[in-house]
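Protocol step 6 of 9: fold each sequence in the batch and record its structure tokens directly after the sequence line. For illustration, a two-sequence batch is reproduced in full.

Sequence one:
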Amino acid sequence: MKFTKSALMAALFAATLPLTASAGLFDDEEARKAIMDLKSKVAKLEADLKNLIDTKTDKNTTLDMISQQDQLREEVARLRGQTEILLNEIQVAQKRQKDFYTDLDARMKKLEPRQVTIDGQTSSVNMDEQNAYDNAMAQFKSGDYKGAASALGDFVKRFSASAYASNAQYWLGNAYYAQGDCKNAITAQQVVVKTWPDSQKAADAMLNIASCQTELKAMNNAKKTLQDLIKNYPGTPAAATAKDRLKSIK
């Protein structure tokens, strides 16, 4: 079996063409096909090299033939090296892809709404509003009423349709009241009663309004608020408290 120098070099050139794209990312099928092609070409070149050596072992072997053999050995070694590089790139790409999807899945789960029970009602809230509400309430519970008022006011603007909105508005009123700002406390609690009249916080909001009116010496207003509370929310703990307070208002 005879091989010309030009034929062998042409075969080597054809074998190296797919490797020019090895720097890119392959999907699994493309990667497996590329590797199989490389292995097949390496095997063929090795076979060609062996045949060439076997048929040219007489003393008349020329320096040119020895040079061809050396070139074939170099090409085989280079193709093997590029196959290893390609395999490594595929492994790295697969790991990167797996890590990406794992991270994406974790992020998506954080964004998914979750079911919570608020004042006896099951509602769906996302993590943004949950975190914003929890942070605002943490400030209130720590005694930072000014910071809580700011955070709660921001919450009801950003999440006006949230299941926590009525609670946030109610605690906003309490945050003002805790600072001695009865004017803003009344305004905030009136929003609760007007916007969420069916909320469990509505009756408590009216009780807070009456407390502010009492502190402002607006006794007639306080009396009317307590009477409306008893009328609109009978049987609630706030209504029972309202009845006791009415006894002390002349």
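Sequence two, same batch, same settings:
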Amino acid sequence: MSPAPPPAIACSRMYNLSPKISGLWDRLFHWLAHRSDVELEVIAHAAPAPLSELWARPDMGAVFMCGFPFSRLAKAERPLPLVAPVSLADWANGQAVYASHIVAARDRPLAKADLAAMRWGWTVRDSQSGYNAPREFFASLAGGQPASKTFGPLLNPRGVIEAIRSGAVDVGAIDAYACQLLEMHEPDMIASLQVIATTKPAPFPLLVASQQQAPETVAALRAALLGAHKDPVGRDILGSLGLAAFAEPDIAAYELLPARAHAVDEALGTW
């Protein structure tokens, strides 16, 4: 009798925003393991451990990956796309897209026109939501003029929140879905912030598996996730995460992201 395969890993590192929210993701992954009959080990891979190390693991079963680094890999080197989430929020419009909210301190009166002169914070340079999206937004405001001051890397949305709260920066971008989760479950964490604007949409970070996973494992995980909204327990878990369903990723949409980033590089340079 051949030994059982080792467990695949599951990780929502991009959206592990608090212990409570992490627990909701753990619930999803435990449901997924049961529904797909695939043994999954839930890991944290907590900051400041680089996400690139997580995405290089050969045992990924269901791991969130930002669309920008996914799109920059050669097709032969990419992990296997499983699904992309569809948020219940209005900005998603029923599609597997997200955006970034441009945020500042609530007690500071600011208009969109003021933002070009502000100190901007950013997360990491391989992030769509925390780096490319706010730079693309800034370029549309500033007419090609550089930002007066930028500050980073702040690593993640919590880093942006803390930098605004401490006064290190005036404005930054928070993944709109991360903001949705915080509004639902940790409203005090963002009570001091105001949303000034929302960026153009981009394809939602997707769940991926490593190329080394068996095809039947990948198929089982994908099928369970795509059917989650039809299962009573799955639907309840999705609702607790502010999601309507999972959808098949539109890979062509992800492949537009490098061109968008390059256009901003040409206009602004790097932050």
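Proceed to step 7 once all outputs are recorded. Observation for sequence two: The two ends are 56 Å apart (CA to CA).
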